[in-house]
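Q: Got a minute? One more chain.
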Amino acid sequence: MKEDKPSATAYLIARSTFFLSLDPLLGQHVPQRSAELSRRFAHTRSRFARLLDEVLNSKLLRPLAVALERATVPGIKLHYALRKRYLEEIARDALRDRFRQVVIIGAGFDTLALRLHEAFSEAKFFEIDHPATQRIKKRVVENHRSAKRNLQFISLDPACGNLEESLLSSADYQPETDTLFVAEGLLMYLAPAEIDLILQFIRNHSGAKSRLAFTFMETQSDGRIGFRESSRAVDAWLRLRGESFKWGSGRARIGEFLAARGFNVREVITSETLRKKYFAAEEHMRHLSLADGECICVSELN
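A: Always. Here it is, folded:
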């Protein structure tokens, strides 16, 4: 991403989340609080951008927005929603298992910590993100008094910042505590050496039962990192925004990658996993497009 501007991808996902929440069929997959917060974040863009969003989401032009999605990454909005839904279940399970810290690395405009820190007041939540994106988020949160004392924002570019200096300098972070780390939609933007630094921090500065839940892009048969049916225009847009993918892995190789760095795989979730889990009882939804090529992995220290 560009140094002085919020992440374009963070804005894209916030808009996608809000737009999907308005869908009469698919809106059920977006929590109401998430939809409202996503709307607020999306509306911090320029007046022209907000107006364009409203026009594209109008009943008259909504078919055009649907066609645009089909031409770029079919099923991407639904993918974002189900990805977030599953990660929320993982986080809630960890908190019920007496994990008392949750660290979101590269939080963007995600709403997970903003919502869960209210429900789990005995746990501590930390959001780490690039200062340019986090500045916008904090302003919205502070204007609406949406954060309590158990949520802390730490400004740091995950690609080049030092987690040890930033997170360990917080008096609230406890390095001996079992912690859930979440890196949703982040690692594909980092070089392998940058990923290694994050994994090294988790190994050295968290409890023995700590977990890392993250998403990773799959490397396709032609060597390309991305969604299977995405158009080349998506790659060009990411390059233009300075947010090109740098790292990917095959789902069969992710276990080997993690084992070499001191982690075990608990589960790998694919688009087919999500489809079966959330649509098994809804036959009328099984035909819906769902972007394929980004997996969720839940891992733990070995």
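A: Residues 167 and 173 are 7 Å apart (CA to CA).
Q: Perfect, thanks.
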